């Protein structure tokens, strides 16, 4: 129920309400959180950002779910990338050793292959994700929503009693 | 920035903080208990645990560690303890405690609950140091035949015990005689002594015909004779080499045959021992008595110590163990693999630099209770990281009474090297039961005793020395003496009022040997033997004589073969070698004489030339002077 509520909020945010930048920023932060395999320092900071900044929370939570699933699927690839960066590039060993000996840095668990792979994939892909999401929201609002509304199945659902009740409940919740 | 989010986060932080505040103690307490239980193999319980996140301090009101061998008693129980955790290492997940004081330490206190852990089915563990050593020593004790002294009083039918044809030494002498015949026969046929004798005789005649006196003053004849002598010398030398080559081969074979003959003496001795065993006349083996009496109790104690050494090895792994365990399997999905980089700080995962132990049993009553005092330095789960060995020194004593002291160094910085010293003095012994035996006591009672143990463990090498003294002792037997021997054994032991026992367990790589000795061994050996000497020794002597007599005929036959060869072929070889050498010396002497004569003739000729030269010079001089005078005039 908790997740359904977030998905519903997410689709509502796609339609209207917050700016497309806010929705895609929330989605991007959630995407970064979802990629991380462990509860580490950067996860805490990203959660803080998600809550404190005026970004779309629902988009963030949906992104956590989607990115978590994608990261689970790509785990062997992420592990290999992390292993390559941590072990197979001797030029970087000095950097990792210095970080390993700093008091705070180990809390990020950068020395874990999956963690390092996720950080790298996150850094590389966060901007395309942000940009893509923003474009998606704009396009959705301009073109896609109107088309979807014309779909017979959508009209059938909207004309059903159940949907009527759902809308009533939403209105009541907004008023309260 | 969202105000509502700030409030939400604050609420979450507060809720988490409250939960941590109330649950952290229970969580950490359970974590410590589980770790302790894994190490000890019995329940570990902490009461009143408190952890303060603000000043990183820990304390507990009571710690109980159950005895795995007696779960209704505690191996260790302590009162309140408080200590601080260093903050900086926590960033790397390491726990460092500078000083931990454990007060009111008690041992053997009763428990209100069962301290045993449920038995979990697990993989069969690899045998450790303790298991290997115990197995080896127990095997030795199991192999030890039950001490049977009944043979001491028995009369024997020697003829039935010794069958000459069954004796290994008789068979050995027969085989030897056959082999010696074959070897000597071979050399008698191969060694052409007659031919050498003939050649040598020809040489002697030839040399005798050469008379250096006959050619004196004739240099040419003398030179001719030297040439003849040189040629002769070469031929005799050739003969010497031929005789020497064959002679050496004969001597080598003879030497090996003699060695084999000497070795047969051991076979005779082995036959005697075998016959004695058949008749149960082995006598009292000193080491067997010590092992039979004290083997099991001593091993039980050493096993206990080895168990704890094994635990130390397991939970304080040495560098070699850590290095071999570094190979990681493929990581589970979404967990990855941790890559460990060089860590610049000597922070092991757990380090307690110093642990103070102090306590007193019997509610502090120093007349009845034991006082405990000691310290442990450098207790760590990663000795190679800490770089220093773990040391401990603990005393357990009662005022003007018994005292225990345990000192040790567990050096696991590189390979595992452990040293342990345990001593106990003035301990009250009471009645101590001994393994059951028909002749030996079932138990002994002693007022006081003391023991000391030093153990050195390097890798899988063990060297443990154990000493035990008890006095005054009285022995108790399972039943009344029913025979002469039992009465004698008891009268011997009745004179002993002290036990002095020494034991050594040493070895490596699963090959461990236990040696034990005690004053009882010697007393029994001497006392029983002296009393029962006549029958026992006479039987022994009879057996020995009988075996030796059975062997004697075969032995003398073999020796006569060897003697005949020595006096025949071997003597001939030696005689020929001496004669050849004598002829060579004779030739050399002749040659020397002639060379001296040649030298003398040479000198004479040179003198003559010099005189003639002088005369001619004077004559020429006078001639010239005469010519000069004529010119002047």
Task: Describe, in plain words, how this protein is organized in 3D.
- The complex is a heterodimer of chains A (176) and B (633).
- Chain A has 176 residues and is mainly alpha-helical.
- Chain A has one domain.
- Helices cover 80% and strands 0% of the residues of chain A.
- The longest helix of chain A has 38 residues, at 113-150.
- Chain A is elongated and about 65 Å long.
- The relative contact order of chain A is 0.13.
- The model of chain A has no long low-confidence stretch (mean pLDDT 86).
- In chain B, helix 4 (168-190) runs antiparallel to helix 6 and helix 7 (286-315) crosses helix 11 (519-632).
- In chain B, a hairpin with a 2-residue loop joins strand 15 and strand 16.
- Chain B has a domain at 10-114.
- In chain B, the strands form three sheets. A ten-stranded mixed β-sheet of chain B has the order 7-8-9-10-11-12-13-14-15-16. A three-stranded antiparallel β-sheet of chain B has the order 1-4-5. In chain B, strands 2-3-6 form a three-stranded antiparallel β-sheet.
- Chain B starts with a helix and ends with a helix.
- The radius of gyration of chain B is 46 Å and the shape is elongated.
- Chain B has 633 residues and is of the alpha+beta class.
- The A-B interface holds A 37, 48, 51-54, 71-72, 75-76, 78-79, 82-83, 86-87, 93, 96-97, 100-101, 103-104, 106-107, 111-115, 117 and B 1-2, 5-6, 8-9, 88, 91-93, 331, 333-345.
Layout of helices and strands:
The complex is a heterodimer of chains A (176) and B (633).
Chain A lengths: L1 H14 L4 H16 L5 H12 L4 H17 L1 H13 L5 H8 L12 H38 L1 H8 L1 H15 L1
Chain B lengths: L2 H38 L3 E4 L2 E3 L4 E4 L1 E6 L2 E9 L2 E4 L10 E8 L26 H15 L14 H4 L6 H23 L2 H17 L9 H60 L7 H30 L3 H6 L25 E11 L10 E10 L2 H4 L3 E8 L5 E9 L5 E17 L9 E16 L2 E16 L7 H11 L4 E10 L2 E8 H114 L1
Parallel strand pairs in B: 7-8
Antiparallel strand pairs in B: 1-4, 2-3, 3-6, 4-5, 8-9, 9-10, 10-11, 11-12, 12-13, 13-14, 14-15, 15-16
Helix pairs in contact in B: 2-7, 4-6, 4-11, 5-6, 5-11, 6-11, 7-11, 10-11
